[in-house]
Amino acid sequence: MEKTINVYYISGNTGILARNLGKALLAQFPGITFHGESFPFIRTEEDARAARRRILTQSLDSRPIVFSTVFVRKLNDIFNTPEIHFLNVCEGFLLRLEYLLEARALRLPGSSRQHDDMIMAKRVNAIQFSIAHDDGTNLKDYDEADLILIGVSRSGKTPVSIYLATQMGMKTANYPLVEEDLQRRRLPPEVIRNRGRVAAISTSARMLHVFRENRYKGSRYARLATCAEELEQARELCQLHKIPVIISSGRSIEETATQIVHELGLKAAITF
Amino acid sequence: MEKTINVYYISGNTGILARNLGKALLAQFPGITFHGESFPFIRTEEDARAARRRILTQSLDSRPIVFSTVFVRKLNDIFNTPEIHFLNVCEGFLLRLEYLLEARALRLPGSSRQHDDMIMAKRVNAIQFSIAHDDGTNLKDYDEADLILIGVSRSGKTPVSIYLATQMGMKTANYPLVEEDLQRRRLPPEVIRNRGRVAAISTSARMLHVFRENRYKGSRYARLATCAEELEQARELCQLHKIPVIISSGRSIEETATQIVHELGLKAAITF
What we know:
Two copies of one chain form a homodimer.
Chain A: E1 4-10, H1 16-26, E2 33-39, H2 45-58, E3 65-68, H3 73-79, E4 85-88, H4 91-101, H5 117-132, E5 147-152, H6 157-168, E6 172-177, H7 179-184, H8 189-192, E7 198-202, H9 205-215, H10 224-240, E8 245-247, H11 253-263
Parallel strand pairs in A: 1-2, 1-3, 3-4, 5-6, 5-7, 7-8
């Protein structure tokens, strides 16, 4: 039977970075099964020892891998022992940066996510805006939007809008292309006049069919032929209005969102 | 005058990981000003050369820093030249993992964010749920929630709920503690009976005052004394019902969300 390798992400803060890096690296080894767990907020030797005990108890069969974004040397030392494959995510880069910047690194946890009132306000406003402008609501405010996503019903506009708001601080509205838009090849004036910030999301007819069947099983709306037809009409409509179309099928929310911002030549309102 | 150092994040995919790592590292050097820019989707030598040209044109004054999560050696080579401080985020770790896992890494871009239907469905459902259960709506569905956040009005429940849904796939409802709840020290039965998955968000009276003033300037609701009183009443209510209270002031959305999941002993529905 295939062996599972335990992987742990330890951090003085959320552990999000350790996990994201670990996941990206381990995904390059698709033949191996990994089991991952995070230990955030490792701040004291007691925290570190408790985490180490849990890690070793769970890993009697094979040596676990630990990715660490902890900055404090004496906390890392607790994990950096022969029973553990210890990977220090930051230390090597920090040494290199100290050398090339001719400066000393603080080595304090969580500095990159330190509270910044302006960033916080942008994210909160963008999230509120996107919730209030989901699914074609409040078109009157579209001039205020950083980005407007259009697409047929159930093409995946909402998750991308919410992601753009939460992670990039962009006020994103989304507008569903309804039958009338598709057949008359028209778009609301609020969309048209903000065209430079409009992108369309498309997907495969099969995926759309699956999503629609989940909601309205057996309906005409969910039929594969209806899906294919609407997607084709939407494609023509976008071509007519010179709106870029981004395909979301086979892509994660992150990829679709990044592709849209890239394609429109926009910049994230915040990067953090 | 202080010099700004240009920093670039290049990636075969979204560039999110390169940027997050770079930001975390550079935040350890608070005395230096950095200007960051991402070049996602570097897939061909042409993409790489175009990015390199832009980087060098923008960095005539000082040698730029490039963080790369590109996996393809010949693309990295285009950036790894004397004009650039080149930091390869993945290569060192991949070599170490190849050795300890006794396996060969694929070195394909974006594998960690490769489309996974199950993860996608969990995220989409969680986002839809959180939007439909924002601000005390649809209490009848609370038994279905993975997590329920409570707190006084404007304490920051919505952004944390949306983050938990988007990034951790957790169906998160949020419920505002209204005057009646606070004065009678009561909670709706839908909250009470799911207590193991309920956390409260609190903040400082000053922050709450600022947020409320933004919305209803000069109102009794926004007054500092009202804010302090409501926060104290909420604290007592939570103590009575044994609900953990997480302080959001001075914390990023990520930190608050991670702290809540950690405190309740829950696991993210997805980790990716």
